[in-house]
User: Fold this.
Amino acid sequence: MASPGVRVLLLLVLVSSAHGDASGINRTRGNRTLTPEEEEDSQQHHNNTKAFPVLSFNFEHVRKPFEISLWILLALLMKLGFHLIPRVSHIVPESCLLIVVGLLVGGVIKALDSDASDTNSSVPVLNTKLFFLYLLPPIILDAGYFLPIRHFTENLGTILMFAVVGTLWNAFFIGGMMYGVCQIEAAQLGDVDLLSCLLFGSIISAVDPVAVLAVFEEIHINELLYILVFGESLLNDAVTVVLYHLFEEFSHAGTVTITDAFLGVICFFVVSLGGVMIGLIYGIVGAFTSRFTLHSRVIEPLFVFLYSYMAYLSAEVFHLSGIMSLIACGVAMRPYVEANISHKSYTTIKYFMKMWSSVSETLIFIFLGVSTVAGPHVWNWTFVIFTVILCLVSRVLGVVGLTFIINKFRIVKLTKKDQFIVAYGGLRGAIAFSLGFLLTDTHMKTMFLTAIITVIFFTVFVQGMTIRPLVELLAVKKKKETKRSINEEIHTQFLDHLLTGIEDVCGHYGHHHWKDKLNRFNKTYVKKCLISGERSTEPQLISFYNKMELRQAMMLVESGSLAVLPSLTSMQNIQPRDTVKQRVIPSISKRREEEIRKMLRSNLQKTRQRLRSYSRHDLMMDPFEEDLSEVKFRKQRVEMGRRVRLTETHLNVHNSLSFKGMVSQMGYSMPLQGGERKENKQMKALKMWGFIMFIFS
Amino acid sequence: MGTTQTRSENKYDDLVTKTGFSPEQIKNLHKRFQQLSENEETISKEHLHSIPALANNPIKKQIIDAFFDKRNQHQDEVGSFQEIGFEQFLMVLSHFRPPTLKMSEEDKARIRKEKLRFLFNMHDTDNDGTITLAEYRKVVEELLSKSGTMGIEAAKAIADAAMLGVASTNVPHMKPDEFYEGITFEHFEQILKGLEMETRMHIRFMDVNTTTMRCGKSTS
Assistant:
């Protein structure tokens, strides 16, 4: 375990080397041309006497990528380091620890730089462009691609209410009350006008998806609450964008007219719906492209990433909501792409997304810490304290009020516990900070930034740290950890059809009716277009069953042993005794077969070896008995083979679509044949040894 | 007029206590019942078969049978009706009422049991108290019936795997010569524990008077 001292040393070394070249990520590279010239000069000077330089130092050449890599490396090493101290990482969420590290790093850089006389601090700050274009998209894409669709659509009304109405309420309440606070003589805030307050309110009101993800991932709360808070944090992006631009325009113009307000409302619809539309278009195009990637499997993951990123950037071009575009793209693309791509590409996509989003999140929090130390601060007690209090108050009021209205329309009502978690989970994060950073430079800007940072720190530290014990205390329902079983899937589908049927009998076109219509439209038209081969007509139950079998087969192969049985129940226990098992082998697609074959073959090496060791062990026991006949050995081998095949049938559900059936057909007969020759030699050796023992006894 | 009104109100009161619907909901459902039955007193299977929206439903037959199943009437009778009246219609639909906020844990458990019982009855067609392998296979086949020939072959495999799953969860250590008869109601409850039936198996019944949906038949 690395002691804290060693780690601080490591930290200092990394930081000072990063700083050693007076770095700043948003510094211009102006002085690059000097160094080569200088080198040339010195070379000309010593042209006659200097030997050929074996080793030379040219750092400027690689400075920018070097710095970026160093920062990322630092972030990841910190992340590693936290898990070496289990007690701390249990109590404090990772986001807090990362912010603290950022503070330390920022402090160190500032201290090292304190002798520099220029006001332009060399501490890197969270550059808005860096944040919005590079750090935020991976996190949102990861969240959107793996969004639990079922829960999301079931609760869409509630989520939209919280996102739109809740954020509007927050913005106006905070803005209005802050204006009232600013009117107090003692605060010396007289120059803050209403529009600036409203602008401030709109920045600080939005719940941040990055912070919510960072905290909620660790507490494993049930899906409903998770999707409510997280969905709200995603969908309020449109509201935030519109309000921000609106108030910024107004604060320049100075006055507001009714037409402006009306245009603002229209703008909201354009921003959100336009964003979603762009996302859908890119998603469909991406799904269509994946239909043709049969012969170039290696580049499949790139399509997913690039199409999604393009969706985000295209939305940003028109000032539409990039986040909603990204989510819509991921959601639209996913079912079709997953049906088309290979298993390896699917794994690649999953892990790359997790990796990128993890790195982004880490970097964001560290930079938040660093920027806190760096930026100029204007601390105004009244302003900051009131901001924090008002944020909390408005959040609670908003959630309680909206739930009261929402519960009239919901079947599964939200309890007081649910409301508390939703209110408490309204964390603010880096988006608020970046938006604040984008403001035009005024005296108020620094004051606003200070207040924003304080609110972010308060929510992330206080609320982030206490939410876990509160969840335990209130006994909030946790996430269901096990994967769905085949029975649950069958009955979920059965229930869907049943409820649609009952709705039809009752004659009203409810929720299930429209869902059923959408599914049928999807099946008859869209799937045929976007999915290649005969998987386009595969019903959902069969693809679920195939996925499950694949998972089980892989688990079986990876564990290497045939005797991994959770229970001893087998097919014999289920089939009635008089029926004869039909061994019908229908056609599965050739492509599928090939994939399965390759996968199983590549993993069979392990099993082959283990089987050989098992057989050797069995044979070793017998040589010291009297009867060393070859026949006995062969009998034992046959017995063992039978036992192997019997345990194998316990798992062989049916020979038709079972991959384990293929395993038994292909693989396990092979080692028993391949090992035979070697065992003959072994048996001969054992016989000799037994004979020798017999002679000497 | 006064007497008929009070009589119908009393009739509705009776139904309200039996099924738990509100009077407005019962009134709306009565309208729908009359639409389906072409203003007669009872509906038969043909009336339900002729609803056009049900044509695309893969488990249409099971749903219609469930309406005529005596076991769903909470009265310990078995067999099936030929025709049902409005009260029986309501009793079946009462299984799909949504849960209310102020429910105790026992109430929730009771409602979950009722709903699971309804599903169980739908699967257990010969009423022997267990879902045998053949019956379960039929269920999966029906689910995949709209999916062509691929469905029929896969249905067997899926049903077998599912049955194995039930057996493994409930009776983990069976000797090789024991025979698992079928899924009993307790086992059925056990495997569907995670689905939270009391919150999932419901539809929204209209309180307000919606304009009647044309069910495709012309009402004279």
Observations:
- The CA atoms of residues 282 and 551 of chain A lie 31 Å apart.
- Chain A touches chain B through 63 residues (CB under 8 Å).
